[in-house]
Design goal:
Largest sheet: 9 strands, mixed
CATH superfamily of one domain: ANL, C-terminal domain
CATH class of one domain: Alpha Beta
Radius of gyration: 22 Å
CATH topology of one domain: GMP Synthetase, Chain A, domain 3
Helix content: 25-40%
Number of strands: 25
Structural class: alpha/beta
Strand order of the largest sheet: 2-1-10-9-11-12-13-14-15
Number of helices: 15
Shape: globular
Distance between the termini: 58 Å
Strand content: 15-25%
């Protein structure tokens, strides 16, 4: 029988348990602690408020993931009712016009019974007239639903939008069975222990790594989690390790760009005052992993007692609910590609024609209202769209099928070009995208870099030289654009195909 860890199993029995479940660090530096008993009561009451608004088992409800303090108990309340949560990205840094377009498309696809949002976004969402809109705050005082509603294991648990790195985001249907299986796989893969571990996260909760890893798997095992606002980390990346030290964190995860930001912003005097000796799982995933980035991070925080053995490269994707593999320690091949470990228990990985395929109980049910037999194959295998290879059982990820740069018949992964360009002073952190354009004899490489307006003109020349030297590709053009110009997913990944489209259409203004 497949091992499962359903997030509500422990929650339903937590009446009277005063141990911490969630700790929310607010922008003013104060911490709000939610006990297990308090979380159970709030979830049961929010379930009652949702039921009073007509939400029943199987109904879809949109949730704007702005603040963990209100989003998480509402998400769990929907699981409690047997309803289907649809996490939605909040607007980033006031950019509401692109957000409205994204939300309109998402809500039009999922056709929710209700949409829940912070008060400041209620009017924006109500204007779309797709469904009734409720502020999170008004859901806090409903009549308690005393126990979770019994629901079939194969029923949908939530709908997760993919990042949309190579095209439009798609709505993945995670079932109760796939979520329970992945929670169990995460528990076993990193040896989660509710009596020992403390999680710390700044990851956005509309993204699978934050939602499943720290919103569901940790809850299923009984691990208390410290939630930092995603916006607080973006403003001050050094907050991440300061929080790990302050709360005695033992488990934390982030994408490669998060490690890069935190390493670059580390101040020696602040690091010297930290104690990171308890941190035993320092996970890195969600995008291609740069070994040099992780090595720089460890070097920056080693004076605080950070053990390099804590590094845990991993691989996963929304179509597999989340986790597919974990490594323990940083290992690379001769070209520097990072080993992301062996498949989690009960799952298989194989590589077919360079593409990674996954099979196991965590594979989701498919895409909402979309037949995709080439992705979710009838034989149970999931074609991930990621390129990679297996070496002595360890999975190495090299890029995305659709993003590969093909020049004179040779394939190059774009992140190698982007990492080289990012080494040049004056290039904004995370502000590089590489793609190809049609050329006379072959495709040509274009590198777009975000730079402050006052950056010296020589930055483009330096990027040209760096990419040529480090990667062996000579860019046909290096385009400078202002910070914030490059298209990214809601989780911060580069949208290379969209950048290419805008470039070819003349929409990327130098």
């Amino acid at each position: 029988m497949t091992a499962r860890r359903w997030p509500l199993d422990g929650l339903a029995s937590w009446s009277g348990d005063e141990r911490p479940a969630h700790l929310h660090r607010r922008d003013d530096g104060t911490t709000v602690t939610v006990t297990r008993a308090g979380l159970r009561l709030e979830v049961a009451r929010r379930a009652g408020a949702l039921r009073a608004r007509g939400v029943a088992s199987g109904d879809r409800v949109g949730l704007v993931a702005s603040h963990p303090e209100t989003f998480l108990p509402t998400f769990l309340a929907l699981l409690w009712l047997g309803a289907v949560a649809v996490p939605l990205a909040p607007p980033s840094f006031g950019r509401r016009d692109p957000w409205r377009s994204h939300i309109d498309e998402a809500l039009g696809l999922v056709r929710p019974r209700l949409v829940c949002a912070p008060p400041g976004l209620v009017d924006d969402l109500a204007a779309a007239a797709v469904a009734p809109v409720a502020a999170y705050e008004v859901l806090a005082g409903g009549d308690e639903v005393p126990a979770p509603v019994a629901t079939d294991d194969h029923a949908p648990a939530y709908v997760q939008f993919t990042s949309g790195t190579t095209g439009r985001p798609r709505a993945v249907v995670a079932t109760r069975a796939s979520l329970g299986a992945n929670c169990a796989a995460i528990e076993a893969g990193i040896d989660l222990d509710g009596d020992r571990d403390i999680g710390v996260t700044w990851l956005p909760l509309h993204h699978d790594m934050g939602l499943v890893g720290f919103g569901c798997a940790a809850l299923a095992v009984g691990v208390p989690v410290v939630h930092l606002a995603n916006s607080a980390f973006i403003r001050d990346p050094s907050l991440w390790m300061r929080a790990v030290a302050a709360y005695g964190g033992t488990v934390t995860f982030g994408p490669n760009f998060g490690f890069a930001l935190a390493a670059r912003r580390a101040r020696a005097d602040q690091v010297a005052a930290l104690d990171l000796s308890r941190l035993r799982v320092l996970g890195c995933g969600a995008e291609p992993i740069n070994a040099a980035t992780l090595e720089s991070f460890v070097a920056a925080y080693a004076p605080a007692g950070l053990d390099a053995a804590a590094l845990t490269p991993c691989y996963g994707l929304a179509e597999a609910t989340l986790a597919v593999s974990f490594a323990h320690g940083l290992r690379t091949d001769g070209a520097g590609t990072v080993d992301c470990g062996r498949p989690v228990a009960g799952h298989e990985v194989k590589v077919v024609g360079g593409e990674v395929w996954v099979r196991g109980p965590s594979v989701a049910a498919g895409y909402l209202d979309e037949q995709a037999p080439d992705t979710f194959r009838p034989d149970g295998w999931l074609r991930t769209g990621d390129l990679g290879y297996l070496d002595r059982g360890g999975l190495h990820i090299t890029g995305r099928v659709r993003d590969v740069l093909v020049v004179r018949g040779a394939n190059t992964d774009p992140h190698r070009v982007e990492w080289a360009a990012a080494l040049v002073p004056g290039v904004r952190d995370g502000g590089v995208i590489a793609f190809t354009r049609p050329g006379t004899d072959t495709e040509e490489v274009v590198v777009v870099i975000e730079c402050p307006p006052r950056a010296p003109a020589e930055v483009a020349e330096a990027v040209h030289a760096m990419v040529s030297a480090e990667v062996g590709l000579v860019p046909a053009e290096v385009v400078r654009v202002r910070p914030g110009t490059l298209p990214k997913t809601t989780s911060g990944k580069p949208r290379r195909q969209e950048a290419r489209r805008r470039y070819l259409a003349g929409e990327l203004v130098p």
